[in-house]
Amino acid sequence: MNQTTVLALETIQTPSVAWTGLLPVIVLASAAILLLTICSLFPDKITTKLVSIFTSLAAVAALSTTFPLWSKVQNSSEGPYSTIAGAFGIDGFSLFVTMLIAISVILVCPLLGTFLERESITGPEPYVLVLLAATGGMIMAGANDFIVLFLGIEVLSISSYILVSMNSRRIQSQEAGLKYFILGAFASGFLLYGIALLYGATGSTSFTAIKSFTQQVELTNDALLLASLALLIVGLAFKVAAVPFHFWSPDVYQGSPTPFVAFMASAVKASGFAAILRVLYVTLGEYRADWQPAIYAIAIATLLIGSLLAIVQTDLKRMLAYSSISHAGYLLVGTQAASDQGVKAVLFYLATYAFMVIGSFTVVALNAGESGTETSLDSVAGLAARKPLLAISFTIFLLGQAGIPLTSGFFAKFYVIEAAIEERSYMLAVIAMIAAVIGAFLYLRILVKIWLTKPEKEEDDAKLNIPFEISLVLAVTVFATMFLGIWPEPLVEMVERAIPVLIAS
């Protein structure tokens, strides 16, 4: 009886939660739930335009909450801090990626509202899934524990699987969704098994505890830890479509509705590299001598295969898919450097690439015809004659991805190659430059079609109208690509303050 009484009087100590640090995640997750609830209660009164506006405003609200948090963590007296017992942290790195994801949602929302109805996709579900995917990406960026990281990855992945296969009337979309789901499930299995082995080797899933363990304990047999490291690299490499884990990417890019592809190429890729940097550079930095060669080899394969296979494609979306794989190679070059300079280069690259790729897919969507499926290379033939402003915009995006001076892509490539040279990875730097030359041929091939080829359907394509909100997206992405190519200092200063750190509970 006395024992029962004692047990009843015991209290459970729950960790304190810094709710303000979780505001970006809370805003997007709450917006997704609220949107789905309202549309379920009033299905006939909520239009697609209202849903699109609501989603954009939710992303703007999430973005707004990051500004005071950024000022707080940059304050020397405040600094990075934990929100939930060291499991989720707020630092410059997590906030930078969160900002990037929110901006991607804001830019993609007009595309959703304009092009989904064309592909017979209606209802609030796509917007809800985009909000949930963005929420998962933000969780990945701030994760300070493998359990939280895996939670964020799964929220992002499951939402992406559904988005990819959303167009039930196209067999390509269904095929892409199935392939993405099956391969993604295997990748998640590898990742989870790697986490389990790492827990077995170190006794914890906390990034801080694992880092402390690797610094203080010298293992006589680190086979278990190295095996976990290999599995983690496999699982994370899949998320960013790095070779040889890229096979899903071309089919998914070609078969999915174009607005979803734009979101995946920007926000999802940023989330994946946020996870890679958290795990490899921050948590397992003591074992960089073991994971650097693996990233080195994957980077070379990703650069060359992405660039070479891109030039033989005849579909614009598959071209841009392999181009995205090649860009992942450049990001791996910065990751391989395993230095603050490398991290800065990766963050700068992610930010500039997001604007370029969203703009590129916007042009592809505008030029895809009434069905939204006309994405062959010949579909842009004579675009300069049909729509000069659209052709100029696409040209700027392609030149940016090629790394031509006066575009943001030039500095993006310059910084990652510089980081590789500082690490004395001279061969990798040379291969990156060779891949840039190969990639330039790809973009030149598209530009020849745009500027030097006569249009095939003059009477129909001449009537191509660009909605105002799409024009605004193009204007923002073009401006960002050119502005950061002429004056990159504001973004450079920002990424210098966004180096990831371990956050104690």
Mean pLDDT: 89
Oligomeric category:
single chain
Shape: globular
Strand content: under 5%
| Spatial order of the strands forming the largest sheet | 1-2
Report the radius of gyration as a whole number of Å.
23 Å
Tell me the structural class.
Answer: mainly alpha
Give a short account of the largest sheet: 2 strands, antiparallel
Poorly predicted residue ranges: none
The tally of structural domains comes to: 1
Tally the helices.
Answer: 21
List SSEs in N-to-C order: HHHEEHHHHHHHHHHHHHHHHHH
Tell me roughly what share of residues is in helical segments.
Answer: over 70%
**Span of the ends, CA to CA:** 38 Å
The count of β-strands is 2
Question: What characteristics describe this protein?
Answer:
single chain, 505 residues, mainly alpha, two-stranded antiparallel sheet, globular
